[in-house]
Amino acid sequence: MNREKAKRKGIDGGWGWLVCFGSSLISLSLRSLDPSFGLLFHDLFLELDIDSMKASLIMSILDAIVNFSGLLVGPLLKKYSYRQVSFFGSLLSCSGLILTSRANSMIHIVCTYSILGGLGTGLAIAASFVALNTFFDKKRGQAVGFSMAGTTLAMMVVPQLIHLLLDAYGFRGAMLIVGGWALHSAVGACLLRPFRVESSKPLGKPVNNSSENDTLLRLNDAETTKKVEYGTNDCENNTTTYEEIKQHGKENELLRKIKETFDLDLFKDGVYLNIIVGLSLYYVAESNFKLMTPFFLSSIGMSKAEIASCLSITAFTDILARLTLPTIFDRLRLKKRIVFWTFSILVGIGRSIMVMQSKGTSLIVIFVIIGFLRGATLVNLNLTVSEYCSLSKLPSAFGMFMVFKGLFVIMLSPLIGYIRDASKSYAICIHVMTLIISAMFVTWSIEFICKIFRKGKSDLNKKTQDVSME
């Protein structure tokens, strides 16, 4: 790792800021449409007789495909550069949006918008995140904060733009224009220039150890052959024995290639698993809270204008946190995981306090606070993974994290929905989300405490050895 850092010159500046802009352009072009899904598809759903349950299924499939595309991220980034993967993903996503403009059935929408668009979006955003981490080290938090702030700002503007487009061109015309502006993501992908090291090879690509592996394989084959020859006097059917050993060797080689391609040894790392499980729990709570907040505010008697104001306030303080806090955290050299761990529980507590309020100034103040805290957590969500893993492992590690997010959404989101239907209370549902965040906080706390005890025990043993040597 030290050798890797030593070869990386020009990080935290230079072309890296264009990479930051490109990453922002990709996420802004492909993800800012999500909050406007209902507004954009409303007339088409009425025309095709698609009810709320079917509409929810379309979005659920989209979210699942975006996350499960993480299975492909690691293998693709080992063979291709992040610019190529991101460009390909951008074209897939834009094609999905443009083809959706001709949709005349739910199956058509699922195939183009959810599957094709989701796969492209997942690949493009994951590749751009790896690129951003390659070009930034000490200022990584600032870069990610800047790249995410643009997307949040766009989420405030895009609904108004969609409204104007629908009035002027209808759904199909508006969807074509949406697909056209999403092509800006391809421009952003072109800015993800591979990082050059002293050997003039992209850092994102692994060193080719094929010659070394071939040598080892030849040695293993030679050793296997010797074992077969040694047993010829004791075994009547030497040909069968050799074929069995050869077949066994091929199976082992196939397993080895699969493990190397997907970096499956990451599953042996208990800390990594604790990290991605905890982050996935927070992601479930975050995505469901974002979905249910307007319904909760409506249930306490707020008008649409008041709800829009609360959401705008939250978005504004979210952007403010993303622009200011990463710079402070980077200068203080605070670990991304510790920052996320601290702010996440504050987010949960703040939301539980929010549901106990009625309309008024106190509710507005709480929205200001939880919006700011939310920005601090989301900036460090993905960075917590990249901070723990080396750059060579990051594509696979981030891809596995995406898959875990998808699995946890599938498992826990229906449960949260069931609790809402059974209790008839959005407040109880939001308290459940706080409990989910608390589960992450507790498991990470246990790990931190164990590390402190192990470190203390190790220091004590070292002092004891030093005293005995004296």
In DSSP terms (H or I, runs of 4 or more residues), the helix count works out at 17
Instruction: Indicate the structural class.
Output: mainly alpha
Overall pLDDT confidence: 82
Global shape = globular
Pattern of helices and strands: HHHHHHHHHHHHHHHHH
Number of strands: 0
Kindly report the oligomeric state of this protein.
single chain
Taking pLDDT < 50 over at least 5 consecutive residues as the criterion, the unreliable ranges are 1-7, 198-220, 222-230, 232-238
Q: Report the β-strand fraction as a percent range.
A: under 5%
* Radius of gyration, whole Å: 26 Å
End-to-end Cα distance, whole Å, is 35 Å
Task: Describe the 3D structure.
The protein is an all-alpha fold. The protein is built from 17 helices and no strands. Helix 2 (16-31) packs antiparallel against helix 9 (184-190) and helix 8 packs across helix 13.
